Amino acid sequence: MTATEARPGETTRAAPVLNFEDVVLGFDGVTALNGVTFQVDPGELFAVIGPNGAGKTSIFNVLSGVYRPQRGTVRFGDEDLIGRRPHTIARLGIARTFQNIELFSNLTVLDNLMLGRHLHHPYGVLAALGWIGKARRNELANREAVEEIVDFLELAQWRRLPVGLLPYGVQKRVELGRALASQPKLLLLDEPVAGMNLEETEDMARFILDIRDELGLPMVMVEHDMGLVMDLADRIMVIDFGRPIRTGTPKEVATDPDVVRAYLGEEHRVVERS
């Protein structure tokens, strides 16, 4: 019997995609993360919530190689992420969106999405200038991949317009598409519905569910919209002052007295997901 085979009566569980264990991060005597531990399973939407300054963005910056923690381990599959540069981590398959839109406003939707394919250009400058052979075949394959994202995120009507002319909610969708264009194995969503109206929020929620359910892509999401988090997340970690205070299902988190008092309000009631 191999290590992956189950004994009678046992159930197997796939290995976590991400292990974030006992991470400590500080700056000039200020502790941003203090013993933060969590795992993300294959196909899971894992949410991180907490007040401003709780350490949510610091977690993303550790995962993407912007910050190097003083203690702890961060493993993405079999790869140790601590000490790796951001571009190396991106090549391993971790993509990130940002709270503030980071697009090239003068470029079209298609051009912005093509920028997400930069990891899939295995040729040099001369080949690109000549646009022959391998460069031509690769460029056409990348354009085909981008068109699939255009269809998936329903961006066809804006595909040739500069993103600076588009509504805010559509711009956020384009940024999501650029992250998907890199063909990630793990997606980090930093406040994906920040600043959106109700209709835009509902559209983004639908696309996030499609990413999880149709693409099977695991995600870590930081978000302040508690309604969205409770509706979408499989599990939630609540942090405060850099410390995790509760991790569990939406129902477990929403009914925890400390979480209710600190983040959700005494009158909050859990609505069961269908």
How would you sum up this structure, described in words?
Strands 6-7-8-3-9-10 form a six-stranded mixed β-sheet, sandwiched between helices. It is globular, with a radius of gyration of 20 Å. It starts with 17 loop residues before the first strand and ends in a 10-residue tail after the last helix. Mean pLDDT is 87; it is low at 1-6 and 266-274. The longest helix has 20 residues, at 133-152. The chain is of the alpha/beta class and 274 residues long. Helices cover 36% and strands 21% of the residues. The chain has two domains: 16-93 and 186-194 and 211-268, P-loop containing nucleotide triphosphate hydrolases (Rossmann fold); 104-183, no CATH class. Helix 3 (109-115) packs parallel to helix 6 (168-181). It has helices at residues 56-63, 86-92, 109-115, 125-130, 133-152, 168-181, 198-215, 226-232, 250-254, 257-264; strands at residues 18-27, 30-40, 45-49, 71-76, 79-80, 94-96, 186-190, 219-222, 235-240, 243-248. It contains ten helices and ten strands. One of its GO terms (molecular function) is ATP hydrolysis activity. InterPro entries: AAA+_ATPase, ABC_AA/LPS_Transport, ABC_transporter-like_ATP-bd, BCA_ABC_TP_C, P-loop_NTPase. It comes from Kribbella capetownensis. Keywords: ATP-binding, Nucleotide-binding, Transport. Residues 18-266 form the ABC transporter domain.
